[in-house]
Amino acid sequence: MEVVLYMPDGNRRFALDKGVSLSEAYYLGGKTLRLFSEFFIVERRAKIFIYHALSDYTYKRTDSSLDSIYTAALRTFEDLLKEDFFRKRGIKLRVIGHIERLPVKLKRILKFLSDSTEKEKNGEIIILFGYSLEEDINLALSQKPKDYHSFREKLTLPEIDLVIRPTEMRPSGGPVYAMSQAQMMTLDKLNPEISKKDLEKVWQQYSRLKEFRMRGNPYHLKNS
What is the residue range of 175's domain? Predict the structure, then answer.
């Protein structure tokens, strides 16, 4: 099974297009966490699903959008906590990034969800909340790896097979070292608009490309 990274985008454009508040747009966008989790982890298409919720540079925003993101994130994880979404499905939740910068209530919920699902074994969801590529690399280098292989082992995330992003493909400070062999695909929709049908289409396209790649290069077959 695959490792999948999703980089949500377009929440602010959705708010402008639909005439809704930023916090409502981010809340509607937050529902893609459940959608992708069910599609990839619950339905067993992936062993790890990575949700790039917040980049490190997003903390530098000077407008009100950061408060809207926090408000929406709190509502999103409160909903998932009330439903006991992760434990009922046997999914481990891990949060990576600058968690200490988050509002206290959001931080508490994320810690509880992480701690209470630590031993679950039906797949893993990793939330990147203020993830810093620079810090990830610097930490690995500080351990003085002897070669690239040992350096790579000290980095945070595993090799990613599929990267999905709405409307455009930009790494946006994400873990580019893990994307060297990833298939990158875009969805022609804004984040809050994405449906299961969109994911089914992407998965079909990805599966065809993967099959072609494996037939064309025995290396991929050996390492699949």
Answer: 2-222
